[in-house]
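User: Fold this; tokens only.

Assistant: Input:
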Amino acid sequence: MTKKQVIQTLKIADAGLGIRHVFVRDLELTCIIGVHAHEKRGPQRIRINLDVGVLESDAPHADQLENVLCYEDLVVRIRAIVADGTINLIETLAERVAEICLQHSLAKTARVRIEKLDVFSDAASVGVEIERHSTSRARAR
């Protein structure tokens, strides 16, 4: 499966359901993550991809940032989590990132993929992908 096919598979925008797709592609960061002693000695490169399904509000966004889910806000908050300290499991980081995505009142689904890039010399990456749904039923902010 090519990278293009993977991205097409992840398409979650849906005009009929009033869902907008907000995404972040290939955010590459370094962090101390892992359970093994050698992983705690220094930072590792990770790659994060996000796909967030956001309800389109009944009110128009009026070309105002405060009326939409801001991908810059997501990236800033993810950087803060990663910089906060050691994380044992990549699954824990994925859950925290999904939680950030779903804190916005219009966010309905979050798909988070996190990859470690330098674990095995014969593999491009290893990681985890999760999908979480909001329990909120709000239609507008």
